[in-house]
Amino acid sequence: MASVLAIVSIIIVAACACAALLGTGYVIDKSLEDPDVLLHVFVVGNDVIVTIYEGRRVDELTMVSLEIEGVSLPQSVSLKPAPEAGTGEVYFTEACAGVTGVRGIAVRGVFSDGKTQLLMLTTIKFT
User: Fold this and answer.
1) With the C-alpha atoms ordered 44, 126, 97, 50, is the resulting torsion angle positive or negative?
2) Three-state DSSP state, 33
3) Is 29 in contact with 77 (CB distance < 8 Å)?
4) Where on the phi/psi map is residue 68: left (φ > 0), alpha (ψ -120 to 50), or beta?
C-alpha cells in the first residue's frame, strides 16, 4: 500500500513540475512577443500626443481613442484616425483642458477587423 502511495505521489509531483515548466515557457514567450502596437503618451499644454512607433498590427490600426479618468470627452476630441503610414503622431487637441490631479489615461485602438483593444493604460499627474 505504501509503495502505491509513493508512486502516486511521484506522478503528481512530476505532473506539477511539467505544468510549471510549460506555464513558465508560455509566460516568457508572451512577454518577449512583439506588442500589437507600441506607443508613447505625453502631455503638452492642453493637448495629449500619442506617438505610435511599431508593432505587429500597426498597419491594421484605423482609429485611436483617448479616455481620461473622470473626464467626459466629446467624440470629436477623443477619437482620431490613425496615421496613414501606421506610425506617427496623433494629436488630441484640448483633451486635458482644465484637468488637474493624478488621472488614469487609457488609449484604445480600433483595428481594420472592427475589434477594439486597450493599447496603453498609464497614470499622469496634471497640474
Assistant:
1) positive
2) coil
3) no
4) beta
Give strand ranges (E) for the chain: 38-44, 47-54, 61-68, 79-81, 88-92, 101-111, 116-126
Q: What is the DSSP string of 83-117?
A: PTTS-EEEEETTTTTT--EEEEEEEEEEETTS-EE
Q: What is the pLDDT of residues 95-124, one digit of tens each?
A: 988 899 999 999 999 999 989 999 999 999
**Residue at 75: amino acid letter:** Q
Question: CA-to-CA distance for 41 and 74, rounded, in angstroms?
Answer: 19
**Bridge-partner residues for 41, per DSSP?**
50
C-alpha cell belonging to residue 94: 484640448
